[in-house]
Every structure is written in structure tokens, then in C-alpha cells.
């Protein structure tokens, strides 16, 4: 059973989800459970219900039964399986996507159409001005507004550090007004109904602001020194570093080359020495890990004197729950087990105590070294952070050490007045004070982000590895609401309030939030708003770990790429520049994002070309308002930045998503030049965007002048967008954009009117017309987008092809065109043509391996640089395409072969045309369908070839099952798949023909021989195995034929074929045996003693299973051997029952002969004695016997062939003397029964 907890299954509302048993589970008792709520019930994540099995055929059959869920409610749901008495042997999650609605009529907004713009709420100003400021998003084509938290912020102003999760930011209420969450909700609803815009907001669960009043009233909600005493060493180190920082700021260590303003590596080396001498050596942090040796030895001595024994095997230290210095103790049971005195005399006890003390000192020494390793790592992290923040060109260059910008970030809050370090140490043991020393939030670079770095076992706070957010408090939820009732209730109220106002939420610090907490909170939100849109940025490269978050939380969209406000990790950092990209890269990057086939987003300010990102901490400017007519310093319109270009891009993005442009292809044309193609698989229209990225400023960096020409297949209908970025001097601190930067834009123009590209030539190759595009004046920052339609003739061919494919699926209705003149073979559905084929014809159409094909002068198709197909028929293609289809692996050699030429199409049609008759008609159908395929662009050929083959294959199977018995037609999918073995193994061919059946036999199939040009019998024969035993003399084996006859022919309803095979072998009866190898009856071997009994068993089953089956006993048999000593020659007919009598009578009388042509020419591995055949019936037991140790005349008849192994001519297992067959007893019983009833 698969465990799919990390696999992603995303479905839309209205889908039906089915659970079916895999092959390994069929026949076992399996039950499926899910927490998806039953109709009319509320969702409870912990409440699972069993699903009932549905039996589509009306009877209990594991092959086709399934459980079903009608998915009508959005969210994340879990399922698991039980198997027998084993619970939860496998399971996973499913996500049902929400449905977003906008406008007064609640029109559905497709999720892939979303264009979101993020707003820092604190830059919006008073609530009554918000509409004027967010109107910029509406006028530039966005349909979603993403707000950072609207709550009251902490003193730092960091937009994700909330002082009160329940209070609206008072800055939104101007003097004289008091806005509430209800007013925000009204504004959001106005945006949704009047502007067709959805609003979402950030939620933060992993921390709160240091200035939050509630966290000081309920310190149990954070990690403090009372509920998390393991943090005591880290807290002591944090306070010591703060005092050291203050002393460095005051210049106390200047003489030791540690000034307030660090300038070079000499200062860094000196800082290392100060840290070790003034901090770590004095703190003696190793004592928190060690044992008090004297106390432990005294306790050990008392236990020895009291003669207390133990059962432990190794010395074990016990962690002090309060994490005090020398607070750890020893498990005395383990000590007594290891250190045992020779006697209880005082001297022996003293000697034992000395050994015990020595061992404790060794343990303490190891713990001392362990803490020193932590100290070394802490020093490295502190020094590295100082280098980055104060010396590195990539850092913020904070300047001298001050109390505002200390030597390193503080890891814990200290809500008391300043005091000496010694006074602070005393507070650590006072519970009423220690509970207020709360750990700040942060993360560890390169660490597993799902791991909580504040819990026992993590030393991140002690080793100073945390990238700390010093204005936040890390929240401590525990495992369930009962562990911290106030925190869970507070955050639940916060979540419900957000869900009541907004259509969705964005999980900030998704992986830093405990998954069970986020699950619980989102469940509360969805209980109020079922169609909740959930966004998150997991910030992790592992797809499996991302899937864990996505599946468990029901995340709708993941944020890819870096948003400016999401790059900030520490609240003290000042403004920083947009990485190193130039203004010329803004529009190309936006184009690249807009061409993605998913929801897209940006941040307010980017489209206005802000020279530096708006600070998530310090920014106190307000966003500009929209004014379509004028442009002042506080207003923007389409002439600002790249707003006009972004409007065109957002409209295009939404149009492409709505019209089904689901296929995306990206190509690198030149350095910095990228082409992105969005393709619609139904209309086959494409939109091609060509853009020149300019990460470095082209004004100061050299770049190539020439761009290689581009070849676009099809007809360029228009230039959707053409944009050129021009820039002059930058204004570094202008939050309203770069007024001297302009973007020249043209929309919906003809190619001849373009200023940056021109059409050079039209090239025809691979049955497609390509437009050669030359780039002129195409410079960094330029964007050009083409709308491309198929060339008119190609459009007609595609439309006609899709029209003919509608018979297989209605999905081809879109884009289909009826022809004026349709090939006659295509005027009727393929199922009508298929109905003319016999099952023997189906063997040709669907199967035939390479050896069978070569008998007719052909062979299976060989894919260059890969492998030949397993079958010449459709199954050979279906098996390969079944592997290509799920992965859309268009780079497969089969797809390459189809794109490069028509060879495979010609093979499929010509192979069938050569057969003539009804099979030839199917070949004509393929030839006509491939005629369309050869006149469409080659890149489309694999897709439509698959559609044609798959449709024809499905039609063939439907026709096959109509020929078969009701047992197959009404059977399960497993029965149907097994029944296909009848078509696979049964075929007709002139080199495989049976001996001639009696001309007096009715319903024998005939055909005109291609070799003799005369009418001949053409009965099907059974191949003994594929691919080695399917052609020539080795095809027809008596034993194999009649073992499989019941399943392949009788149960499938192929009674005439079964009758022909039975009678054909009856005609070859010789010496009371039927042949082991048939070979048209003339090249035969009679060295198989059990084949005749399988033949007789098949006759019995024919009489029993076939209506009026006993009539076969009177059917005429054309015998080939009139006597045991004669060669093959025509004789008179005799009824089958006489042949049966002869076979059984010969065994009763005894059979003994030497094979004809015995010797190496017949079998070069057999000893001479092995050619002697003997068989008979023991008169006392009724069992058959025969053979000798050198022949193998029954089942498992492998003959040894190796002289080196000394087994040549010796059967692998003994096949002589007595052999007991169940079929023999059945035959005796049946013959007696028929005799009793005179039949």
C-alpha cells in the first residue's frame, strides 16, 4: 500500500474522486476512511468515516469496485486505508480548490486568471483614502488586492509584528473618526462587487510583537525560562552579550582593538578574544550540562552500603528538569549495575567510589568539551554577523555599535529596567520574573524549516545561529488547545475575524508555524468561509516538504520568486536597493511572470519603477493616488512607470487563462533574450513573448547589438504588445517612481508597423510555414508579444481532423471544422468499420509480435536510437504511449520520430492495407486520418497521432468484446483484459495452418490464398507463447493448446474456433497420442504423453460449456494416419467419438514406438534411448505410466543441453514411470457417465 502523504492531489469542486484497489490488494479486506464530511455534516479533521464500496457490475468484484467522494466543499482532506486487522497501512491528502466569485452577479474568477498586487497596509493612510490608492491596481488590470496585516503594529513598525491581533491599526482612523473591522469589510465587499476584485490579507501565527500587552499578561504563550528552562544558558549568554555590546559602545575595549566602529579584520580577531575571555569563560555554561561529582559519589556510597541492586547496563545521566548548574544527576541503578565492589568492606566500597568518581569526571570533561564546541560556533556566528552588518559591501553598513544598533541582535526580551549582569542572574531563579524573559522569533539558515529551534534538543539560541526578529516574541502553542488555552483562543478569534472580512489569507512564515496549529486555524477560517483562498511562501527547495505543507493546509497558491517585503528578516535594517537589477529589467521581468500559466502577483511600487523597495519596517510614506488626467508628485496614471505595459500584460494573462492557453514553452534565444510561448491545445493559437532581460544596467555594461532571428510557426496575426524602456537619471529616494523613466508602448498593431522587429521571410519546412522575424532596435528592456494562428491550410486540416475525432471524445468539438469533401472512408464512424472485422482480423489489427510479422514478410516497427515495438499492431504503440502520456514526455524517441517524418504513420496504414478485406478498410481509415496529420505543424503530430491511435484502439476493443460471450461482456475489467489474451494468442496464417479439416464440416472459415491463389481453409491456431513460440513449427504445441483452450476460447465464446482446433488435432492422432509439435500435421513429434489427456479434457469441457456441445462427438474427423505404421496420407472421415475410443484403447493396450526420423537431426540434445516412446495404463491402479529417464514426455519437459554441466540429454526433472493427472480421472468419470446415458 502506498503512503502518499507527500504526494499532491489537487481537484476542482464538482469532481468525483474514486478510490480503487491496486492488484496487490485485490482479494483482501480493505476499508477506506476519510474526514471529508458527509452531506449535511460539518468538517471535523479528527473525525473519519468509512466509505462504502460501489459495485458497478452489480456483483461483488474487487477488480472494478470503488469508493467515491463527490467533492463539493473546498479544503484539505485526509484519507487512509485499513487492510485486514492492520490500521492505516496507507493514505494521503487531497485538496479541493476554492471557487472565487466577483461582481454583483457573483461571476466565477478562475484561479489561473488571478493577478494580485500586494499593498503594505501602513502605506495606505486613512481608510477613507484607500479606494483612491488601490484604484491604481484596478486601472492596471489587477483583480486581487493582497494586504499586509491591518492590525495595530508593534513599536518597531514592522508590518508583520502585530501588537494586537484583534485591533484595527489606529493609523487608519483620521482625527475625529473611529473605523472598525466592519468598515474594512464594507470596503472589501465594494471592491469585490463594484470593481470585480478579490481581497486577501496576511496572517501571522508564529510570533507577536514585543509590545503586545497580552503576551505580558499571558507569558505562558511564549518560550520563557519557566516553561522552557532549557533556554537558561542561551538567555545568560544573550544578556552577557548585551552588556558587552554596551561596553563596546562606551569604548571600554578600544585599547584591546575592539572599538565601537569596526574597520578591519584586526578588529574581528580582537573581538574573538574578548568574546572568549569576557563572556564565555566567565559564564561557565558547561556547568548546566554537568553532574555535581561529590554529591553523586556520596549518594552512590549510600546506595552501596544499603546493598541496593539494579538492572541497568550503562551509566545514564538524568537531565535536571529545571536546568540548574550542576543540576544533572546520575541514574543510580545504572551506576550500581556497572560499579560493583568485590565485597562490602569499607576499603572495597571506597575503591568502587573512586572508580565511579573518575568516570563522572570523564563525563563532565566530555560535557565541557561539548559546551566549548557550542561556544566556538556562537563566536563564529557573532563575528560573521558583525562582518556582514558593519564591514561587508552587501550588508547594511550599520556603523558604530550603539544601544540602538548593538553588537548582535538580542534573542530574548528583557522587560525590566537596566541593571547589572549579576542582578540579572538572580532574576533567572525568580519564577515571577523569569516567566517574562521571552524568546524572540527567527529562523536558522540552512536548517529544516519544519523544525522548531526553541524546543529541547535544538541549540540554535545557544549557538547564536538564529536570524532573529528582535521585535517579535515566538509563540508556544504546544500540541493541542489545552496546552495553552489563551493563545489558541486568541488566535482563533483573530482567524475568524480575518475570514469574515477577506476572501483569502496569506500564511506568513508558513514553515515556521507548527503545521498542526496552521491546520487548526485554517479549519476555523473555512468553517466561516468554505471557499477560502490560501497563499503561502514555503521558502524551501524540497518539493516533497513543500507538498507536506500544501496538502495538509490546503494551500491554493505558492509564492515563487522574492517579494521585496519578504526579503526582510530583521526589523532594524534600513532601506536597501532592489538587488542589482536595472530599471530596464522591470518590464521584461513582469512579462516573464505574466506569461506563466498560474496566478501571478506583484507588489505596489514595482510597476511605478520605485528605485528602492518600500521598507516593511521604516516606511512612513503613503501610496500615491490615481488620476487619469494629471500627474503630480502624489498621483499616478498610465503614463507612470510601466503601468500601461502592466495593464496590457494583466489583460493578456487573464485572457490566456480564460481561453485555455495551458501549454507553456520557454526558449533562450540569446544572452538575456528569452522567448515564452503560451499555446492553446484546442484552437492551436499561440501567444509568443520575446523579451530582453537587463539585470545589469545596459548604459554601463556592454551588450551585444544583434539578436539572432526567430522562426515562428504559423501566421502572425498581430503584435499584441511592443514596449521599449527608456531611462535617464534615477532619483534614489522618490517613492512615487522615476518621472524621467519612460516606456514607449504600442498595442494591437500589425507586424509591418513594428519599430523593433520586422518580417524577413516565409520558410516552409516540416509541412509548416514559419515566419522569420528579424530584430531591429531590439535592446535590453524591450518586449514584443505576437499572437500567432495556424496557417490557413493547416487550420483547415486541424479543424477537419478534430471533427473526425469527435467520435472518440467531445473535447475535440472546440476548433473542429466540417469539410466540403470528406474521404469516403471517413463518412461513417470507425465503429461501423470495426464491426466488420473478425476476431482473427483483430489479432492482426491489435497484436502480432515480430516473429509473426516476419512470416508475412514484414516486422515490427523499429524506432531509431531506441527499440523496436513489441507488436506490429496498435498494442505496440499503446504500450509506449501509455508511458509517455502521463508525464507528457514529448522528448521520447517515439515523439521525435513522429516529428521528423511520416514513416510510422505509413507503417501503420500500409501494414493493414496489405491485408485487404475488412482489415484493409481500417488501413484506409488510418491512411485518410494520417493525411490530415501530415499537413499540420510537426510539433503537433505526436499529440494527434496519440489521439487517433487511442481512439482506434478503444473502438477495436469495443468491437472485440461484442464478439465474445456474455461472461466477458458483463464481466469486470480484469475479465475483459484477460479475454484480450484470446485475441493476442489466436491468429491465422498460412505457415501456421492446421491439417485440412473434413470438407463435410460446416462453418469452417475459408479465404483466397495469396500463395496458391486458391480458396483454402484458414482456421486460427493458438500460439504456445510470445514472442518465441508463435511462428513456424514451434507455434502449435498440443499440450499448451489444450491447457489454455478453456480460458482462451470456450469461456470467451469462441466455440467454432475451439471446435476446429479439437478436430484438427484429432485428425493427427497417431499411436494413440496427439502431437507435441503440430507443424501443419506433416512435421510432427509424438513424444508428449500428457497432451492427449489435455485434449480429451478439452473435449469434455466443450461438451459441458458449449450449448449442444455433445454434438462435437459426431463431427467428422479427417484422419492423416490410417494406421500406426503408415505415413501421413488422406483417409476417410470418422466421427470424433471413434477417435476418442482409439486413444483410450491404445493406452489400455499399451503404446510403444520409436519416433520417426529419430536422431540428431530431430533433437541434437537427446540421447538415443530418449527417442523411444512408451505409455500405458496400470491395470491395478488405473494410472498412466511410461517413458524412460532420457525422455521428458510430460509437463516441465526441459531437456538438458550442456556438456560442460554434464546434463546433456538428461531431463531437468524425472518424467518417467507413473504420472497422475487430475484430467485423467475427470475423463474416465465423464466417459462412464456418457455411456450410462447412451450418449
How would you describe this structure to a colleague?
By secondary structure, the protein is of the alpha+beta class. The strands form 15 sheets. Strands 24-23-22-15-12-11-25 form a 7-stranded parallel β-sheet. Helix 14 runs parallel beside helix 15 (643-658). The protein starts with a strand and ends with a helix.
Task: Give a quick set of tags describing it.
1239 residues; alpha+beta; 7-stranded parallel sheet; 6-stranded mixed sheet; 46 strands
Task: Compute the average pLDDT.
Answer: 88
Task: Determine the N-to-C terminus distance.
Answer: 54 Å
| Count of beta strands | 46
Shape: globular
Task: Report the helical percentage.
Answer: 25-40%
Low-pLDDT stretches are: 563-579, 730-736
Number of helices in the DSSP assignment: 31
**Major sheet strand order:** 24-23-22-15-12-11-25
| Largest sheet, strands/sense/barrel | 7 strands, parallel
Strand content: 15-25%
The radius of gyration is: 42 Å
Structural class: alpha+beta
Summarize the structure.
The chain has 1239 residues and is an alpha+beta fold. The chain contains 31 helices and 46 strands. Helix 5 (265-283) runs antiparallel to helix 8 (346-390).
Amino acid at each position: 500500500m502506498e503512503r502518499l502523504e507527500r504526494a499532491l492531489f489537487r481537484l476542482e469542486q464538482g469532481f468525483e474522486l474514486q478510490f480503487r484497489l491496486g492488484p496487490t490488494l485485490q482479494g483482501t479486506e480493505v476499508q477506506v476512511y476519510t474526514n471529508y464530511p458527509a452531506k449535511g455534516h460539518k468538517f471535523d479533521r479528527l473525525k473519519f468515516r468509512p466509505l462504502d464500496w460501489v459495485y458497478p457490475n452489480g456483483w461483488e468484484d474487487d477488480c472494478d469496485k470503488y469508493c467515491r467522494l463527490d467533492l463539493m466543499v473546498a479544503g484539505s482532506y485526509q484519507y487512509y486505508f485499513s487492510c485486514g486487522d492492520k490500521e492505516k497501512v496507507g493514505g494521503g491528502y487531497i485538496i479541493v480548490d476554492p471557487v472565487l466569485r466577483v461582481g454583483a452577479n457573483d461571476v466565477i474568477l478562475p484561479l489561473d486568471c488571478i493577478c494580485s498586487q500586494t499593498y503594505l497596509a501602513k502605506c495606505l493612510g486613512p481608510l477613507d483614502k484607500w479606494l483612491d490608492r488601490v484604484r491604481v491596481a484596478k486601472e492596471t488590470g489587477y483583480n486581487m488586492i493582497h494586504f499586509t496585516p491591518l492590525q495595530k503594529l508593534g513599536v518597531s513598525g514592522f508590518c508583520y509584528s502585530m501588537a494586537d491581533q484583534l485591533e484595527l491599526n489606529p493609523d487608519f482612523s483620521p482625527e475625529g473618526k473611529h473605523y472598525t473591522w466592519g468598515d474594512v469589510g464594507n470596503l472589501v465587499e465594494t471592491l469585490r462587487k463594484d470593481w470585480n476584485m478579490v481581497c486577501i490579507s496576511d496572517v501571522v501565527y508564529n510570533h507577536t510583537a514585543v509590545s503586545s500587552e497580552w503576551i505580558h499578561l499571558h507569558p505562558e504563550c511564549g518560550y520563557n525560562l519557566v516553561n522552557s528552562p532549557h533556554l537558561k544558558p542561551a538567555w545568560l549568554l544573550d544578556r552577557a552579550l548585551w552588556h558587552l555590546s554596551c561596553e563596546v559602545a562606551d569604548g571600554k575595549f578600544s585599547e584591546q582593538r575592539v572599538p565601537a566602529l569596526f574597520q578591519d579584520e584586526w578588529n574581528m580577531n580582537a573581538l574573538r578574544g574578548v568574546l572568549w575571555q569576557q563572556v564565555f569563560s566567565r559564564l561557565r555554561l558547561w556547568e548546566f550540562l554537568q553532574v555535581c561529582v561529590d554529591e553523586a559519589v556520596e549518594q552512590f556510597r549510600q546506595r552501596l552500603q544499603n546493598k541496593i541492586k539494579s538492572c541497568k547496563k550503562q551509566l545514564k545521566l538524568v537531565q535536571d528538569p529545571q536546568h540548574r548548574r550542576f543540576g544533572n544527576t546520575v541514574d543510580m541503578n545504572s551506576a550500581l549495575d556497572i560499579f560493583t565492589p568485590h565485597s562490602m568492606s569499607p576499603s572495597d566500597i571506597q575503591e568502587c567510589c573512586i572508580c565511579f568518581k573518575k568516570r563522572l569526571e570523564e563525563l563532565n570533561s566530555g560535557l565541557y568539551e561539548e559546551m566549548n564546541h557550542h561556544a566556538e560556533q556562537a563566536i563564529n556566528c557573532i563575528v560573521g554577523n558583525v562582518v556582514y552588518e558593519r564591514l561587508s559591501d552587501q550588508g547594511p553598513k550599520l556603523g558604530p555599535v550603539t544601544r540602538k544598533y548593538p553588537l548582535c541582535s538580542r534573542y530574548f526580551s528583557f522587560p525590566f529596567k537596566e541593571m547589572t549582569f549579576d542582578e540579572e542572574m538572580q532574576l533567572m531563579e525568580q519564577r515571577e520574573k523569569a516567566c517574562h524573559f521571552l524568546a524572540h522569533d527567527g529562523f536558522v539558515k540552512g536548517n529544516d524549516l519544519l523544525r522548531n529551534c526553541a524546543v529541547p534538543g535544538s541549540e540554535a539560541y545557544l549557538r547564536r545561529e538564529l536570524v532573529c526578529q528582535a521585535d517579535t516574541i515566538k509563540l508556544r502553542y504546544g500540541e493541542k488547545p489545552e496546552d495553552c488555552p489563551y493563545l489558541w483562543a486568541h488566535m482563533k478569534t483573530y482567524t475568524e475575524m480575518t475570514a469574515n472580512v477577506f476572501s483569502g489569507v496569506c500564511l506568513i512564515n508558513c514553515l515556521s508555524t507548527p503545521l498542526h496549529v496552521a491546520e487548526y486555524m485554517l479549519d476555523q477560517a473555512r468553517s466561516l468561509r468554505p471557499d477560502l483562498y490560501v497563499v503561502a511562501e514555503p521558502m524551501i527547495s524540497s518539493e516533497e516538504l513543500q507538498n507536506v505543507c500544501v496538502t495538509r493546509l490546503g494551500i491554493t497558491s505558492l509564492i515563487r520568486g522574492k517579494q521585496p517585503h519578504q526579503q526582510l528578516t530583521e526589523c532594524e535594517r534600513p532601506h536597501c536597493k532592489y538587488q542589482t537589477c536595472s530599471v530596464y529589467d522591470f518590464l521584461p521581468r513582469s512579462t516573464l511572470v505574466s506569461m506563466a500559466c498560474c496566478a501571478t502577483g506583484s507588489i505596489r511600487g514595482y510597476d511605478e519603477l520605485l528605485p528602492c523597495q518600500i521598507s516593511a519596517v521604516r516606511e512612513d510614506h503613503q501610496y500615491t493616488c490615481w488620476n487619469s488626467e494629471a500627474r503630480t508628485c502624489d498621483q499616478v496614471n498610465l503614463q507612470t512607470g510601466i503601468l500601461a505595459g502592466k495593464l496590457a500584460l494583466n489583460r493578456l494573462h487573464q485572457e490566456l487563462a480564460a481561453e485555455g492557453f495551458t501549454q507553456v514553452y520557454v526558449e533562450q534565444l540569446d544572452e538575456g533574450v528569452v522567448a515564452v510561448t503560451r499555446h492553446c491545445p484546442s484552437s492551436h493559437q499561440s501567444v509568443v513573448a520575446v523579451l530582453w532581460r537587463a539585470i545589469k544596467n545596459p548604459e554601463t555594461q556592454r551588450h551585444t547589438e544583434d539578436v539572432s532571428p526567430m522562426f515562428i510557426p504559423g501566421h502572425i496575426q498581430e503584435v499584441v504588445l511592443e514596449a521599449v524602456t527608456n531611462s535617464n537619471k534615477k532619483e534614489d529616494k522618490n517613492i512615487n517612481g522615476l518621472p524621467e523613466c519612460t516606456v514607449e508602448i504600442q498595442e494591437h498593431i500589425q507586424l509591418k508597423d513594428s519599430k523593433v522587429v520586422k518580417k524577413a521571410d516565409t520558410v516552409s519546412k516540416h509541412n509548416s510555414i514559419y515566419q522569420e522575424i528579424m530584430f531591429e532596435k531590439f535592446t535590453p528592456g524591450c518586449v514584443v508579444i505576437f499572437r500567432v494562428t495556424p496557417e490557413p491550410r493547416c487550420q483547415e486540416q486541424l479543424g477537419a481532423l478534430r471533427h473526425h475525432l469527435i467520435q472518440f471524445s467531445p473535447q475535440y468539438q472546440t476548433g473542429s471544422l466540417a469539410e466540403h469533401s470528406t474521404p469516403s472512408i471517413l463518412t461513417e464512424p470507425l465503429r461501423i468499420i470495426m464491426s466488420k472485422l473478425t476476431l482473427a482480423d483483430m489479432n492482426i489489427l491489435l497484436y502480432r509480435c515480430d516473429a509473426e510479422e516476419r512470416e508475412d514478410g514484414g516486422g515490427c516497427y523499429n524506432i531509431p536510437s531506441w527499440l523496436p515495438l513489441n507488436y506490429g499492431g496498435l498494442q505496440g504503440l499503446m504500450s509506449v504511449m501509455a508511458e509517455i502520456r502521463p508525464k507528457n514526455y514529448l522528448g521520447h524517441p517515439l515523439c521525435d520520430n513522429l516529428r521528423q517524418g511520416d514513416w510510422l504513420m505509413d507503417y501503420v496504414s500500409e501494414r493493414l492495407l496489405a491485408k485487404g478485406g475488412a482489415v484493409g478498410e481500417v488501413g484506409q481509415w488510418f491512411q485518410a486520418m494520417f493525411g490530415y496529420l501530415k499537413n499540420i505543424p510537426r510539433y503537433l503530430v505526436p499529440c494527434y497521432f496519440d489521439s487517433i491511435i487511442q481512439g482506434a484502439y478503444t473502438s477495436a476493443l469495443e468491437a472485440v468484446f461484442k464478439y465474445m460471450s456474455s461472461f466477458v461482456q458483463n464481466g469486470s475489467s480484469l475479465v475483459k483484459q484477460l479475454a484480450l489474451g484470446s485475441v493476442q494468442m489466436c491468429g491465422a496464417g498460412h505457415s501456421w495452418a492446421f491439417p485440412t479439416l473434413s470438407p463435410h464440416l460446416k462453418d469452417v472459415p475459408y479465404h483466397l490464398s495469396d500463395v496458391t491463389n486458391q480458396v483454402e481453409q484458414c482456421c486460427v491456431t493458438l500460439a504456445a507463447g510470445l514472442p518465441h513460440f508463435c511462428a513456424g513449427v514451434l507455434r502449435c504445441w498440443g499440450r499448451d493448446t489444450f491447457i489454455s483452450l478453456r480460458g482462451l476460447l470456450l469461456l470467451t465464446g469462441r466455440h467454432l474456433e475451439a471446435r476446429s482446433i479439437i478436430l484438427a488435432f484429432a485428425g493427427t492422432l497417431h499411436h494413440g497420442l496427439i502431437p507435441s509439435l503440430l507443424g501443419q500435421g506433416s512435421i510432427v513429434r509424438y513424444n508428449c504423453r500428457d497432451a492427449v489427456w489435455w485434449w480429451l479434457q478439452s473435449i469434455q469441457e466443450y461438451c459441458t460449456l458449449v450449448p449442444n456441445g455433445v454434438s462435437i462427438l459426431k463431427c467428422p474427423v479427417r484422419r492423416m494416419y490410417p494406421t500406426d505404421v503408415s505415413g501421413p496420407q488422406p483417409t476417410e472421415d470418422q466421427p470424433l467419438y471413434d477417435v476418442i475410443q482409439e486413444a483410450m484403447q491404445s493406452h489400455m493396450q499399451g503404446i510403444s514406438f520409436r519416433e520417426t526420423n529419430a536422431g540428431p537431426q530431430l533433437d541434437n540434445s537427446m540421447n538415443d534411448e530418449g527417442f523411444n516412446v512408451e505409455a500405458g495404463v496400470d491395470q491395478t491402479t488405473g494410472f498412466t505410466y511410461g517413458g524412460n529417464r532420457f525422455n521428458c514426455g510430460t509437463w516441465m519437459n526441459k531437456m538438458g543441453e550442456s556438456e560442460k554441466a554434464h546434463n546433456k540429454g538428461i531431463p531437468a526433472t524425472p518424467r518417467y514411470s507413473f504420472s497422475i493427472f487430475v484430467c485423467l480421472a475427470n475423463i474416465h468419470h465423464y466417459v462412464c457417465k456418457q455411456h450410462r446415458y447412451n450418449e
